[in-house]
């Protein structure tokens, strides 16, 4: 592909489109080095500053990443998923062909704080299960899930195989709790000390925080959860039909 110097489209945008095309069509594959600024400058007869600005935009968009002293490389494409309230993240990943794994980071029974009690429509101080799991996709940490469930709904929950079996399957099979609807909110946060360690990113790294409440067939809230995704690995897709 070459630049069309007779086109009204600016040359820097044409170069950006060429590089995007090569990445999207896997002519340049993840973690492969792209040509250097000098090489691209010579190849397309553009100033090095123009080339650098194009690469900087692609780095900002998450399509490329720089390694000091080594060059610029193609980023692993983000995983596009539907809302968790529609289908569990593990099910979605496996349907897309990803190898998944789950590690239980913590599990405990505590008294509900006012915040959690309000989400679950229970009284402050009522016992709740707190289950924290780290989700992996292709052996890399993807997300940290913390679920809060009223203890009265799921007697002896932690005796179940919560590491291998999806929580929604356990709730359905063993407790006859089926999700009817859910409410989600999404916001961006920076990684704190604990998140940076578990998700293997630097402190302050951009993360996505998804909060949701799941309601059963009887309109009873049975789970409040906070899911923290690595911002460089996930993209949430929302669809609307009328």
Characterization of the model:
This protein has about 240 residues and is an alpha+beta fold. The chain has 2 domains: about 60 residues, Winged helix-like DNA-binding domain superfamily/Winged helix DNA-binding domain (Arc Repressor Mutant, subunit A), CATH 1.10.10.10; about 160 residues, Chorismate lyase-like (Chorismate lyase), CATH 3.40.1410.10. The protein is built from 7 helices and 10 strands. Strand 8 and strand 9 form a beta hairpin. Helix 1 packs across helix 3 and helix 2 crosses helix 3. The longest helix has 14 residues. The mean pLDDT is about 90.
Topology:
Blueprint (H helix, E strand, L loop, with lengths): L10 H14 L12 H8 L3 H13 L3 E4 L3 E4 L4 E3 L7 H7 L4 E12 L2 H7 L6 E11 L2 E11 L16 H9 L3 E12 L2 H7 L6 E11 L4 E10 L3 E3 L6
Parallel strand pairs: 3-10
Antiparallel strand pairs: 1-2, 4-5, 5-6, 6-9, 7-8, 8-9
Helix pairs in contact: 1-3, 2-3
Task: Please summarize what this structure is.
With 242 residues, this protein is of the alpha+beta class. Helix content is 27%, strand content 33%.
Instruction: Report Rg.
Output: 23 Å
Q: At the third CATH level, what is the topology name of the largest domain?
A: Chorismate lyase
Q: What is the domain tally?
A: 2
Name given to the CATH homologous superfamily of the largest domain: Chorismate lyase-like
Instruction: Assign an overall shape.
Output: elongated
Helix content: 25-40%
Structural class: alpha+beta
- Taken in chain order, the helices and strands follow as HHHEEEHEHEEHEHEEE
End-to-end C-alpha gap: 41 Å
Strand-residue proportion = 25-35%
């Amino acid at each position: 592909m070459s630049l069309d110097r007779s086109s009204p489209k600016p040359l820097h945008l044409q170069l950006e489109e060429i590089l995007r095309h090569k990445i999207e069509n896997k002519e340049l594959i993840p973690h492969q080095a792209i040509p250097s600024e000098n090489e691209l400058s010579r190849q397309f007869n553009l100033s090095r500053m123009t080339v650098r600005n194009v690469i900087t935009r692609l780095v900002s968009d998450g399509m490329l990443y720089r390694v000091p002293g080594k060059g610029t490389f193609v980023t692993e494409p983000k995983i596009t998923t539907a809302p968790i309230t529609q289908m569990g993240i593990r099910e979605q990943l496996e349907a897309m062909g990803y190898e998944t794994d789950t590690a239980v980071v913590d599990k405990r029974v505590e008294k509900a704080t006012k915040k959690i009690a309000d989400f679950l429509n229970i009284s402050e101080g009522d016992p709740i299960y707190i289950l924290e799991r780290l989700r992996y996709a292709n052996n890399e940490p993807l997300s940290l899930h913390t679920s809060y469930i009223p203890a009265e709904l799921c007697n002896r929950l932690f005796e179940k195989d919560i590491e291998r079996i999806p929580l929604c399957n356990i709730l359905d099979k063993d407790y006859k709790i089926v999700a009817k609807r859910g409410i989600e909110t999404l916001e961006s946060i920076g990684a704190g000390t604990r998140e940076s360690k578990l998700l293997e990113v630097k402190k302050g790294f951009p993360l996505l925080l998804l909060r949701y409440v799941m309601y059963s067939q009887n309109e009873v809230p049975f789970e409040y959860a906070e899911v923290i995704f690595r911002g460089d690995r996930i993209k949430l897709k929302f669809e609307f039909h009328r």
